[in-house]
Structures are given as structure tokens and as C-alpha cells.
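Work package 3, deliverable 3.1, input record:
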Amino acid sequence: MSAPAITRPGPERAATPPPDPGGPRRRRRGAERTYYLMLIPAVLLFTVFITMTGLVGMFYSFTDYAGFGDWEFVGLSNYTSMLGDSRILESYGFTLWFAVVTTVVVNAVALLLAIGLGGRIRWKTGLRGVYFIPMVISGIVIAYVFNHLFSNAVPALATHLGWEAGQTSLLANESWAWLAVVIVTAWQATPSAMIIYLAGLMAVPKDIYEAAELDGAGPWRRFRSITFPLLIGYVVINTILGFKGFLNAYDIIVGLTGGGPGTATMSVAMTIFGGFEDGEYAFQMANAVVFFLFTAGVSLLQLLFVRNREVNLS
Amino acid sequence: MTITDRRAREEDRPASRLRTGLLAVGTLAVLVPLVFAVLMALKTDRQAASGSGFDLPSPLELGNFRTAWELTDFPRAFAVSLLISVVAVAGQLIVSSLAAYAIARNWDRRLFRWSYFYLLAAMFIPFPVVALPQVKLTSMVGLDNPLGVAVLHILFGISFNILLYTAFLRSIPYELEESARIDGCSTWQTFWKLIFPLLAPMNATVGIFAFLMSWNDFMMPSMIIGDPSMQTIPVVQKIFQLKFSSNYNVAFASYLMAMAPTLLAYLFAQRWVMSGVTRGAIK
């Protein structure tokens, strides 16, 4: 079996950005006009559609705008009433819990699979090929498939087997429906985390393992003392990227539970999108601003943690 | 003993066999939902409504696919999805690579350096944060349609793409460009004739991600596109939750048709896709 294409790091492998100063050319004149023309489309589109739009939305969060008609300034009252709104608070609670659990599950499964698939095994290409499949499938479509599995197929099988607890749908269980959302999200998100771990494993020199094996280190010892410490940087990348994505949970929840039962699996994104219903535009914009501060805060904390960690390791 | 022999022997060791076996069993987690979808899609109405759904369909009902095709108006949804994906992929490739090139070659100039960090900041702005005003804006300027969705995909992809492109551009020796310029190429020509082709591996990575994102997305089209008849394939599937909620077999035929394009593309270009996404991971 030949080494699959994935094990080739490629000649382009480069260190981290920011990019270096464009070779030897360090003219102090203004840049050529062409360069401005190349940059303008990206910056302009970005400014109009994201920066300006975000600021306009933020502006409305201080008003009582319903999404149409007149509005008046109401100061911070949208923000203060968020604090007393149990629906909002619960959506933050659910989203955070969901993101933490899914990050842990995805990383554990992805790491396990990457170690398995990175080793000497038969049918390597084929097995990898299968494990990658969920990455190319639409989240909402697979959520519809799992929806049927959870609400019809599993209860029918449970009845057949006489398994009492399985006879009611997981999706109808207010205290456990989140687990279904975690399962489907993990199903879909594991491949991309696995790719990052496989890339990390390729960088681990093989002779270390042979030396450790000769010294009598068992598989668990080799994982704990060699693989994991060498992969820690990749664990960090996966945690940050994954967590950030899971905080935006929407598609899979829509296909699976629709936020229910009740509001048990309502994510923050879902509550925000409800802003056009019930004339809640301004209120949900306040929610969006808080959500932005929340996600940005989480990302910054993670980055700070990583930075401290790097200092400790060196 | 040749290397191949040694390798084959290692693959036959009990530990490796056990590992292969476990991994093979693990693929069931991926395959069961997909096989289940196939089994359901081939059942008759009555079969689909009874039992667990895991029983083999008999008789085979292939008409479900045609019913699903008609109910979802598949050709139209397909055309809309394709339009969004093509524009999003082309736009992400062109807009991001141009901006990344300008930034990488003018890193010593403050404006370009700031633009880099400004564009990168988008990583901290998820779609839900700006969704509501974006719905307003797109409907105001007549972009509450597939084109508007494509534009938003281009925008939300910029930060990650620029990160990938600038890292790659560093590895292209400047001497190459110098010689192109001596031959009389303008900056514009240098980019299109020399740099863009050299970026090919990154273009593949960016293109694959852009395609998967835009093709499979539900959040943006469902929020932005006003006209229900202009919806994408993932969004039109919701009729089976609302209107035709008891036609399980037809719904599953439709889900399979929704999954088919990316799944088939992946099966035929597996090696290429995998190396492309790995390149993104290494960065």
C-alpha cells in the first residue's frame, strides 16, 4: 500500500503568519496603485457588509425598534431586560454547556481515530476515506436523518428488544435532548478535527516510538509521554476552532429538535434569529451584541491561556 | 528483506490486526445513518411507516426519488445551490488571493498591515451577530437572493483564506517575480500569469472549503433569501418537516438526493480533497 496523499506535508509548509516583508524590496515610497486596487474589494465589502452593518445593528440595540416603523431611544433597557429573561439566560447556559461537551467529545474521538488511522494498519486509505465522509454532508440534512433515527427507529428497536428506557425518543426528553445534539454535531465535526491531528502525528518522528518500545514503554505510556505532549499544540488549535464553531450551533439543532422540547435546546443563535418575530428586533440585537462580546471574550481567554501555556512549556 | 515485506509483516502483527478491526467496526458509526437513509428511501409508504426502518425494503420502491424530485423542485434548487457555490468559490479565490498578495508584498506599509488585522478580525464575528441587520441591508439593496448569500459567503471566508494565502505567499521566492518584472510584466500581469498559478495548491484548499461551506449551508440562505422558490437544496428539505411530514420514504429519497452531489464529488476526488483539506490543517 502506498502512502496516501495525506501524509505529504508539501513544500509550502510555512511557519505562522504574519507574513514577512515581501522579500528584499523595502521601498519607502507609496505602494503601487495596483496593490491598492487588489486590496480594496476585500476591505470595502467587509466594511459595508460586516463593520457598518454590525454598527447599525448595535445602534438599534439602544432603541425599541421592532424591525419596522418608528423607534425611540430606550437607553440600556434592552440589555437590562435580557438579564431578567429566563429564555435568554437558558439559551446561554445550553449553548455553553453544549459547546464544552462537544469540544471534549470531538477532540477525544478525533484524537483516538487519528492515532488509529495514523498507525500501521490495513486498508488505511479506505478506512480514512470512510471516516472523512461526514465532513462533506450538509448538517441539516444529516440532522433530519438522525431525527428519524432517534424518534422512530430507536424506540421501535427498543420495543422489539424489550428495552424500556429506549422506547421514548431521546429528542422528547427535556433533560437529555442536548445529548442528541452533541452526538450529531460530533458526528459531523470529528473529521475536520481528525485531519488536524493526523497532520500533527505526521510531524512526530517514528524512531522515538521505536526507542520507547525498546525501553519497554507500553501503548498507554507511549501516548501519555510522547504522542500527547507533542500534539498539545494541535489540541489547542482544535479546541479553539471547534469551540468557536459550536457556540454558533444552529443548523443541526433546527433539523433535530427545533430548540425543543420546550426551549431545552434553544441555542443563542436560534434566539437571535427569532428577532424578526414578535417585533423583538432591538431586543435580539442587544442579545447579538452580548453574544459577540461573549464569543470574543472566550476567544481572547483561550488565546491568553495558550500564551501562558507556551511560556510554561519552554 | 524489502521495506514492503517488513511493512506487510507489521500490518499482520496481532496488535495491528486488532487496531484495523476496531477501526473497521468504528466505521459503522459513520455508515449506519447513511445505510439507514438508503433503506428508508427504497421502501413503500406502508413499509416506511412501520417497524424500525432497518428491515430490507421489499418490494423496492424507486418512485420515491421521482416524487421527491417533483416535491422539492430539485432541478431549480440544484441550480440555485450551484449558482451560490460557483459565485462563492470564484469570489473567495479571487478576492482573497488578490488581497493577500497586496498585503504580503506591502507588509512594511502600515495601511496594508492594518488591513490584514482588520480582515482577520472577522474570525471573531460569527454570522448570528450581524444576521439581523444583514437581513435588513440585503433586502434594502436587492440582495435578498442567492447572489446576496454568495456575497456573504465570500466575506465570511476572507479572514481564514487570507491567513492561508499569506502564509503560502511567503514561501514563493521573490526572485521569480523579479524576473517576471524584468521581462516587462506589470504587477497585475505578474499576479495573474505567475502568482495565481503558483498558488494552485492553496487555491484547491480554499476552493474545497468554500464549496463545502456554501453548498451545505442552511443558516445563511434560510435567513437571507426572501423568495421561497429561490431556496437552496438544504433549505427546501424542510417541506418534509412541515407539509409532507408523514412521507418518510419520500423524505429520505430527498435527503439522499441532497447528499449525493458532495458525496459523489468526494468519492471521485477523494485523494485530491483529502490532500487539499490537509494542507489547510497544516497551516
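Residues 3-66 of chain B form one domain.
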